Amino acid sequence: MSTEVNILTGVRPTGNLTIANYLGAVKPLLELQEKGEKPFLFVADLHAITDYEPHEVKKYIKELVADYLALGINPEKTTIYVQSAIKAEVMTLSIYLARLTTVAELLRVPTIKDKIKKGQKPESANALLFFYPVLMASDILIQKSKKIPVGEDQVAHLEVAKMLAERFNKKYGNFFTLPKVHQVKSLRILSLKGDSKMSKSLPEGAIFLTDTPAEAEKKLNKAQTAMDKQMTPSLESLVLIAKGLNSTEAEQKQIDEIIVQHKSGQQVMGQFKKLVIAIVKRFLQDFQAKRAEIVKNKKNIDSILENGAKVAIENARATLFEVEKHLYR
Ligand code: TRP
Questions:
Q1: Four-point Cα dihedral 206, 211, 215, 218, nearest 10
Q2: Ligand 1: which residues within 6 Å by Cβ?
Q3: Domains and CATH numbers, the chain
Q4: How far is the CA of 11 from the centre of ligand 1 (A)?
Q5: Backbone phi and psi for residue 150, each to the nearest 5 degrees, phi listed first
Q6: How does pLDDT run across 160-195, given as a tens digit for each residue?
Q7: Structure pTM?
Q8: Residue of the nearest CA to atom 10 in ligand 1?
Q9: Which atom of ligand 1 has the smallest separation from the CA of 47?
Q10: Residues 94, 96, 99, CA angle at the centre, nearest 5°?
């Protein structure tokens, strides 16, 4: 019998993580893990080949797993697997789901519409772009997942997953749990340049978990803070960074005090930056030391993924078996 998974989320292996990824996505997952929610976390390597070459994607899979482990994901509490380890099941279910939607509907998915607006022509886009939400629905439904922690940009995809589950249930009998977005409070961490969200694609304004402490310091030294008394979005982002990256209570208090002083017109931004830099550097050092330990033993990562895949595939097969009983009854 297939079982419902309480929490499931996927992450595409397309590059190194930034501290904004950690604060916005990994940390909320760690909280769920520590609450005993037994989340499923998978590396969405099939989604990644929508716009990356497969051999590039492959390189990043274990890198990403090492990052997550070093950040505190614990394989005894979280099931970790690679999407392609259950590809036969996921792809088969996606075929059954794809026939419950139309091409016109897929063209209307906001993320896809956005790409088209930005110049991507439907005639030249590869077909995986349109299949993306169907595949994502399959990831979710194959584990009968209830809650999906994702960022704002993925909410439209979850709507598709929910719609496909509803259509299946209506046509073939109640079977799928309807997945819900698990709202993670969205943190708006700006690029250090201040103009947009911190993102891998703007490396100058982003701090990567792989940056050396010296590189991070250099970037932070150039970062925008704020002029006279104002609480700008850039300053707020730096506060979120400093508070979120394992700062001590004493440091957090100090941050609050500095901000009060700043708002009253004192020149404290230099002092503030020093504190932020110290916190970020310490976080990166800790992370990198843990990560180095983890990658020393590559076999360990392999066995974690094998164990996760076993759990994931057993449930995926059971779900697919039951789905086929409904379809071919
Ligand atoms: N599309 C998601 C992203 O780019 C990754 C993803 C793939 C995912 N399948 C999923 C997330 C299923 C949650 C559930 O971030």
A1: 30
A2: 8-10, 12, 44, 47, 136, 139-140, 148, 150, 154, 157
A3: 5-188+297-328 (3.40.50.620), 203-292 (1.10.240.10)
A4: 6
A5: -140, 165
A6: 999 999 999 999 999 999 999 997 777 889 999 887
A7: 0.93
A8: 10
A9: 7
A10: 105
